[in-house]
Specification:
By secondary structure, the chain is of the alpha/beta class. The chain has 3 domains: about 80 residues, Winged helix-like DNA-binding domain superfamily/Winged helix DNA-binding domain (Arc Repressor Mutant, subunit A); about 110 residues, D-Maltodextrin-Binding Protein, domain 2 (3-Layer(aba) Sandwich); about 100 residues, D-Maltodextrin-Binding Protein, domain 2. It is built from 10 helices and 14 strands. The strands form 5 sheets. The chain has a 5-stranded mixed sheet, with helices on one face. α5 links the parallel β3 and β4. It starts with a helix and ends in a 7-residue tail after the last strand.
Length: about 325
């Protein structure tokens, strides 16, 4: 039985007649949409769209499919709504805490998708540092939080749900002086301020080793030109209007990269990634709405990992020696 999402994607594709515009309307990547249509064609055993210079046009089989697709989707939505009412997912409140990076990369698109599925659920999100949230999990102020756990230690009272490991990269404005250099090297970045939220100590050490490879001093004696800001909107505005550089993952910057507001510096540090987890209080029975939101997060997290793979593979791998 074809996935209902495939039918929805086919309807939007037929409406726009273009994979790029349809993917944007669906808030998914173009390769994801293409795979969805191919899967639907395989399941139905027929070519549904002709792909030509004049755009995407439904075949005769495609017209038949589109005629019935609306009815299939309506019946499915009616079934889901009745089940949700039975399960208690049509109303309620979800309280979420998140760090700056994972909040920008994953929570924003998850909110859009979840609200489309469950418009009656109220969602409260607080973005900040781990110190603000650890006690709140015990007092049940938050249903769950999302953070980099690499330096949090062991918390037997918490249950951790691992998210995908997303490679981060450096970015700047397109006219940045670094992009004018004939031979750009990683230590060149140290001439410009780095703006970011509070970073784990392991990332700060990684930057010191990368930017100062020939320093005889211990990494602890090296000071970075580092501006700390926990607001991603301010970070992006600063980078867009100055020579500051910043770090991000694909999920945080996809729209700006597509519109060419920012450019990626062509380096990839193996250790520059987050160890992000969804963190819940162990033994606490979550409401159906909370479980539904977490499921949306996990699905989007997996999609982002697939979408970012081609971009990450194009970046030059820089190996950093362990300072032993």
């Amino acid at each position: 039985m074809p996935n209902i999402n495939h039918y929805q994607n086919a309807l939007i594709l037929a409406r726009h007649g273009n994979f790029g515009r349809a993917a944007k309307a669906l808030n998914i990547s173009q390769p994801t949409l293409s795979r969805s249509i191919q899967a639907l064609e395989k399941q139905l055993g027929d070519l549904l769209f002709n792909r030509g210079k004049k755009g995407i046009i439904p075949t005769q089989a495609g017209e038949i499919m589109l005629k019935h697709a609306g009815l299939v989707i309506a019946a499915s939505e009616s079934l889901e709504e009745e089940l949700k009412r039975h399960q208690g997912i049509l109303e309620g409140v979800i309280n979420i805490g998140a760090g700056t990076y994972v909040g920008t990369a994953l929570l924003a698109p998850a909110l859009i998708r979840f609200n489309q599925l469950y418009p009656g659920i109220d969602i409260n999100i607080t973005v900040g540092n781990w110190d603000q949230f650890s006690d709140s999990l015990y007092t049940r102020e938050f249903d769950f939080v999302m953070f980099d756990t690499s330096e949090l230690g062991v918390f037997p009272s918490f249950k951790l749900i691992k998210l995908q490991r997303h490679q981060a990269f450096f970015f700047c404005r397109p006219e940045h002086p670094l992009l004018q250099l004939e031979s750009l090297a990683l230590p060149d970045l140290v001439k410009f301020p780095l703006i970011s939220s509070v970073l784990p100590a392991r990332i700060i050490q990684l930057f010191k080793q990368a930017f100062f490879p020939y320093k005889q001093k211990s990494p602890d004696d090296i000071k970075l030109n580092h501006i700390i800001c926990n607001d991603q909107a301010i970070i992006k505005t600063t980078v867009a209007n100055s020579d500051a550089i910043a770090i991000a993952t694909y999920g945080m910057l996809a729209d700006e990269l597509e519109s060419e507001l920012f450019s990626i510096l062509p380096f990839r540090l193996p250790g520059l990634h987050g160890n992000f987890h969804i963190i819940k209080r162990r033994g606490l029975i979550s409401a159906p709405a909370v479980n539904a939101f977490i499921q949306v997060l996990l699905e989007l997290d997996k999609q982002q990992s697939l979408s970012e793979a081609p971009l990450v593979s194009d970046l030059r791998l820089i190996e950093i020696e362990d300072p032993a």
